[in-house]
Design goal:
The protein is an alpha+beta fold. It has 5 domains: 98 residues, 3-Layer(aba) Sandwich (GIY-YIG endonuclease), CATH 3.40.1440; 145 residues, no CATH class; 110 residues, Nucleotidyltransferase, domain 5 (2-Layer Sandwich), CATH 3.30.420; 160 residues, Nucleotidyltransferase, domain 5 (2-Layer Sandwich); 46 residues, no CATH class. The protein is built from 20 helices and 20 strands. Strands 4, 8, 9, 10, 11, 12 and 13 form a 7-stranded mixed β-sheet that branches. The longest helix has 35 residues. The N terminus is likely disordered.
Length: 608
Amino acid sequence: MPSSNKHKYWSSLEPLVLSLPDKPGVYQFHDSSGKVIYVGKAKNLKKRVSSYFNRGRHDSNRVNLMVRRIADIRHVIVDTELDALLLENNLIKKYQPRYNVLLKDDKSFPWICIKNEDFPRIFPTRNLVRDGSKYFGPYASVRMMNALLDLIRQLFQYRTCRLQLTPENIRARKFRVCLEYHIGNCKGPCEGHQSGEDYMETIHRIEQILKGNLGMVVNELKRLMKDYAAAFEFEKANAVKEKIGLLEKFQSKSTVVSPSLTNLEVYSVISDAKYAYVNYLRVIHGAIVQSHTLELRKQLDESDTELLEMAVAELRQRFGGEASELILPFRPETSIPGVKYIVPRKGDKKKLLELSERNAKYYRLEKLKRQELVDPGRHGRRLMKQIRDDLRLEQHPEHMECFDVSNTQGNYMVAAMVVFREARPSRKDYRHFNIRTVEGPNDYAAMEEAVFRRYRRLLDQGDQLPQLVVVDGGKGQLSAALKAFEKLGIRGKTAIVGIAKRLEEIYFPGDSIPLYIDKKSETLKVIQHMRDEAHRFGISHHRKRREKGSLQSELSQIRGIGPLSATALLKEFRSVAGIKKASQEDMARIVGPARAKIIRDYFSLPSA
């Protein structure tokens, strides 16, 4: 590509980029202090890194800001794309670069640890120590984890002490058996009563339960029970039978999806402007044995594909995923050797994917609810800051108003205005405007009248103007509202935008090119909420006026009944049907006996 099309920082970094190989690998961007600011993976290192310096390629200001900070580029070549994905994931966790997706760790969640030592201990922990120990979890519920540990304790005998049970110490007879041995919870490896091989066989069975392979353990125990029974050791056979019953009872509490689904992992992703949530389900022998949602904070407008790939690598690494089939909402770019990607369209696997998506959505909703409970105003402040940044406003839009016009071919024209305070509807402040000065279907003139009347009243009363005004419509409606602003002398004193329905573009005064906000942006969702509220509020008032007008027109067709009489009758009897049911005396009390008789004769009603 010609250098004229490259970023202005290309010249100083050109030798580094051109020397990169056309191979898969991982690249690191360093700033002038040598700090890693970004880690990425690529099928082709040279093409991917070069793309950062192409002018006009990036809409994101954060990408352009990152490129300006690059002082050095380093890379690592790997054999496959999967190796690149795993290395990228590990380097991000190691360096925590400023411009990379941030993976929320699970330090706050409990794990079950099988310690890497002679005669391994099994215990709960919240601290992961990379010393070769095996960790299972994390568990979203401490109660669930403790229930699982209680089950294992009832099923198997293993030590709970912290003694250094090395072969040398056991041979030297440094330890004595404790109470756990005497009550049958431990087989006494500290005095050599249990061999290391026998103890590790127990640990292997416990690992299978923690992985969710309950069926394998049940089958092993059934075989053992039969062996005991064949040897006429009926007490031992009965003890094993009780353990099988405990396991089957525990398994029955798992969420069963389909017995035909044996060993699967399910991943789904939902995202908004700043965060993504990836849910993971592990399915073994037709039951969901594990569920976890990973939260990722976006930094450079990463796509759902990129985020899902990163999450799959992280979650499989974290949970020791070994499934040969992955159910996904779409096919990732990076393949995993020996693993089949499935994008289901129907059936049990599609239902599993939908369940995973619901888990991700509920996780996000619960997180927002928790934030609101801790700090009720936090959500509103965050939304206002987001709106201010996205729309480039000078101040937080604590008070916003939105206008919409409704009419039927120019008849019964009304405008509606809704008010949002701290990004929430303030329904007591909603207002209707019956358009007075406009004849025929002229939405622009109706918008101008409604905006003028609203802010003329605020100015007359000395009330504060809103920080943001939104009009439902594109350039035409926005121009009409601006005319009202100019007449009142408030143009420039409060921000005003228009939202067009077709592509949800945001128009600014004096700018013919609209702003396209990310469809997942909370700013757009708030503006759409305002627009929909104004439309709903306006339509309901317009419908009432139209119904009332049609009723009045039906009554006004009766010779001798004028608009005042029609209005008085409708106010009293609510509808034409109510008038027909009313007695002549009741009508006479409202409009007099002569008009009451005229109405009853018109509707061919029997005289009283």
